[in-house]
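TICKET: design request
STATUS: open
ATTACHED STRUCTURE:
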């Protein structure tokens, strides 16, 4: 049987969160009141959608607010590609930054913790298994059958597998319905999958900066994200545990993610054509850099310190293979969704461009009879990242959607 493990206080080393802030942008300053406790959910065994077996599954989770007696005031938050369960609050008073969506989670905020019990969990193959605030099971985990890390023998996992493990966590708490499932980017993928797989359980879907499938162009981009890792000789087909790790390849991969998740408006405003170091003209020597180059190096290097290259590759695969409902066609998957949907695009998103993803999705859902709301309230210069850093701009719309 799956079981919950009460977290022995997870002392958050802010290194991981601060690096995430560098990668994804400044986090909100206003924090959820109180200290957040990281807990652990365990399953002795899990069988993947593809038929693989994973033993000793462990994922971290946290919650905000109180579960009511009927256990029907629950909102599930699902996280983005390089995110984790830490959506709000702080693990310690002295933590420099709260969770990534703290601006909308808390008393009186759009996801009102005086009313809702909000749960967020780490996914399988989370990007950052070296971060002490993350609990995940993936290629870097020890295979109990061999006593060694799984490496590339770890079964391929999908977005549906992420949802299945989350469902086991929800079931273990005795929760039978969800007021909403809400996520950004890869979190949106999970939210759509939840709604398709459990249409009678999910009452609302709130999807920010995401889409109902990985289209061919995004599949190609994800391939580019992964390429530097595979080209690093230290990757060694995933067999690098206990040896020199493919840090250079992982860092370059994270640089690609970081830049792709932003926008040229941000680059123009933040850096322009400034040099990285005074007196070192990039034209004068191959090693001289522009400021944006040095920034990308520093941000990605920091993130790489808590990340794992194989986990990165498994996340890429899970995103590439995603189609809502895990079926033969997107139409079949979307047809399973009964819940009303709130779509929150970022106007200048280069990962999930609105004209390519959320606007056509709005039309499809309306055509099949779903209630759909679409807000263009998130506009800034950060591109895809705006859906994380500036989600509060959609706060009023979120509040109204939840109140219906």
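STATUS: resolved
RESOLUTION: sequence designed for all positions
ATTACHED SEQUENCE:
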């Amino acid at each position: 049987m799956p079981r919950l493990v009460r977290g022995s206080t997870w002392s958050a080393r802010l290194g991981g969160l601060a690096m995430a802030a560098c990668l994804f942008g400044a986090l909100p300053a206003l924090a959820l009141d109180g200290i957040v406790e990281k807990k652990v959910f365990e399953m002795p065994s899990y069988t993947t959608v593809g038929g693989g077996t994973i033993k000793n599954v462990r994922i971290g989770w946290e919650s905000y607010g109180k579960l009511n007696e009927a256990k029907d005031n629950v909102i599930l938050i699902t996280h983005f590609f390089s995110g984790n369960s830490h959506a709000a609050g702080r693990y310690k008073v002295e933590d420099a930054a709260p969770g990534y969506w703290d601006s909308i989670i808390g008393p009186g905020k759009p996801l009102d913790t005086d009313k809702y019990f909000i749960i967020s969990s780490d996914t399988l193959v989370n990007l950052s298994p070296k971060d002490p605030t993350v609990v995940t099971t993936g290629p870097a985990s020890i295979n109990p059958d061999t006593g060694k890390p799984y490496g590339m023998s770890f079964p391929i996992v999908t977005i549906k597998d992420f949802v299945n493990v989350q469902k086991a966590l929800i079931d273990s708490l005795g929760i039978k319905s969800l007021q909403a499932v809400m996520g950004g980017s890869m979190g949106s993928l999970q939210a759509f999958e939840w709604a398709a797989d459990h249409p009678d359980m999910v009452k609302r879907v709130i999807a920010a900066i995401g889409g109902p499938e990985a289209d061919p162009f995004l599949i190609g981009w994800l391939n580019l994200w992964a390429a530097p890792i595979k080209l690093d000789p230290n990757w060694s087909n995933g067999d690098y545990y206990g040896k020199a790790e493919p840090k250079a390849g992982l860092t370059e991969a994270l640089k690609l993610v970081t830049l792709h998740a932003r926008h040229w408006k941000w680059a123009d405003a933040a850096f322009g054509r400034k040099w990285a170091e005074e007196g070192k003209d990039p034209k004068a020597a191959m090693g001289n850099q522009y400021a944006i180059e040095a920034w990308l190096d520093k941000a990605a290097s920091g993130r790489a310190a808590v990340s794992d290259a194989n986990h990165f590759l498994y996340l890429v695969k899970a995103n590439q293979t995603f189609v809502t409902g895990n079926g033969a066609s997107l139409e079949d998957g979307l047809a399973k969704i009964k819940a009303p949907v709130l779509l929150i695009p970022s106007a200048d998103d280069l990962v999930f461009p609105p004209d390519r993803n959320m606007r056509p999705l709005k039309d499809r859902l309306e055509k099949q009879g779903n209630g759909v709301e679409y807000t263009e309230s998130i506009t800034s210069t950060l591109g895809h990242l705006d859906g994380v850093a500036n989600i509060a701009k959609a706060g009023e719309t979120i509040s109204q959607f939840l109140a219906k």
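CLOSING REMARK: The chain has two domains: 3-214+324-403, 223-304. The longest strand covers residues 53-64.
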